[in-house]
Design goal:
With 315 residues, this protein is α/β, with parallel strands linked by helices. The protein has nine helices and eight strands. An eight-stranded mixed beta sheet has the order 3-2-1-5-4-6-7-8, sandwiched between helices. It is globular.
Length: 315
C-alpha cells in the first residue's frame, strides 16, 4: 500500500510542479475568468520544479521509511461519500475502479474512504497541500444503491441541513474523485449533507476536450438532480457547488433549471475556480440569479491551472 501511495504522490507532484512553475501572477485578461500567462524562463521553471519535487520526495520517502502500521492502530479518518454518477459499471475487483469513464445511465451509492495511518507523519500530512493530502486516502468499498434511495436518505426537518450537491472538475477519474470529495466534505465540515455528482470524466490530462463533451452530455442530469433535491427538501435550502470545469456544468445546469422550473429556489451557489468564459457567464447570470439566493465565485490570481492548456481551448 505504501509503495502505491508513493507512486501516486510523486506523479501528482510532477504534474502540480509543472503547472505551478508554468504560471506566475499577471494582470487578468478581460473577458475570461482565468487567462493564460506569459511563459517563465527555463531557468525559473527547472529551479521551481526542483523545489516542489523536493518537498514531495521528503514526504514520500519519509513515509516509506516508517514501519508498516499494525492492524490494531486506529485510522485517522474514515467516512463515506454519497454519490450520483453517470459512469459505466466495470465490475472491477478494485473498489476505486468499479466505475469507468464511459457514459451510462444514472447510478448511485456510497463511497467508503479511509485515511492511511502514517504514525508520526500525520502532522506533516495535515500540513501538506491538498493535492498531496488526498493521496493519503484510500477507497475501501463502494456500496451501490438506488438513486432515489440516495436522494431520500437525508432526514428532513427545520433543524436538519439540506444536501449540498458537488460537481467535480476536469481530469478526475472515479477513484480520485471519491478521495477528493471525501477531503472536501471533511475540510468544509459538511459531512452528512454532502452529495457528490460524478460525471464521466476520462481522468486523463490529455483529454480535456473529451471531458468538455462528457460534461455537456451530463448537464441535463445535473439539472434533474437539482430539481429533484429542491422538490424533496423545499425552496431556498439546498446548496450547489461546482469546481473548475464542473462549475461550468453547474452554471449550464442552473440555466436549464431556470428555463424548465423557474419556481426553483436554491440557497447557495458556489463556483470554485470556474473554468468558464466570463462573457458567457455574464449572459447567463440574469437568468440564473432569480433562482439562487446567493452566488459566490472563488478565484485566485495566483492559481492558473488553465495556463497548461493549449491555446486552441480558448482559455
Amino acid at each position: 500500500m505504501r509503495e502505491k501511495v508513493f507512486a501516486s504522490i510523486t506523479t501528482s507532484c510532477k504534474f502540480d510542479g509543472m503547472r505551478r512553475m508554468l504560471a506566475k501572477p499577471t494582470p487578468q485578461r478581460q473577458g475570461y475568468v482565468d487567462a493564460p500567462v506569459e511563459e517563465n524562463s527555463m531557468h525559473d521553471f527547472f529551479a521551481g520544479a526542483r523545489g516542489m519535487r523536493g518537498v514531495c520526495m521528503v514526504i514520500a520517502t519519509t513515509m516509506l521509511a516508517m514501519p508498516e502500521p499494525s492492524s490494531a492502530q486506529a485510522d485517522l479518518y474514515a467516512g463515506e461519500v454519497p454519490f450520483l454518477t453517470l459512469r459505466n459499471l466495470t465490475e472491477a475487483d478494485e473498489p476505486g475502479e468499479l466505475f469507468g469513464d464511459e457514459r451510462s445511465a444514472m447510478s448511485a451509492g456510497r463511497c467508503h474512504v479511509r485515511e492511511l495511518d502514517l504514525q508520526g507523519l500525520s502532522s506533516l500530512a495535515d500540513a501538506a497541500p491538498s493535492f498531496i493530502r488526498e493521496e493519503f486516502l484510500s477507497v475501501e468499498n463502494i456500496e451501490l444503491s438506488d438513486p432515489a434511495d440516495i436522494l431520500g436518505s437525508w432526514p428532513r426537518g427545520a433543524d436538519t441541513p439540506a444536501p449540498a450537491l458537488y460537481v467535480h472538475g476536469y481530469y478526475i477519474g472515479f477513484e480520485k474523485g471519491c478521495r477528493r470529495a471525501a477531503l472536501l466534505q471533511q475540510n468544509a465540515n459538511i459531512e452528512g449533507r454532502f452529495l457528490w455528482f460524478s460525471w464521466p470524466s476520462d481522468g486523463s490530462l490529455a483529454y480535456y476536450t473529451h471531458d468538455e463533451a462528457d460534461l455537456y452530455w451530463s448537464v441535463p442530469d445535473i439539472a434533474d438532480a437539482i430539481i429533484e433535491l429542491e422538490a424533496r427538501f423545499g425552496g431556498g435550502v439546498i446548496d450547489v457547488v461546482g469546481h473548475s470545469l464542473g462549475a461550468r456544468g453547474v452554471v449550464l445546469a442552473l440555466y436549464d433549471v431556470a428555463s424548465r422550473a423557474p419556481e426553483t429556489r436554491i440557497d447557495e451557489v458556489v463556483l470554485l475556480a470556474p473554468d468558464m468564459d466570463f462573457g458567457i457567464f455574464e449572459r447567463m447570470l440574469p437568468r440564473i440569479r432569480p433562482i439562487a439566493d446567493n452566488i459566490t465565485v472563488y478565484v485566485n490570481a495566483g492559481d492558473r491551472p488553465l495556463v497548461s492548456y493549449p491555446p486552441k481551448f480558448g482559455h
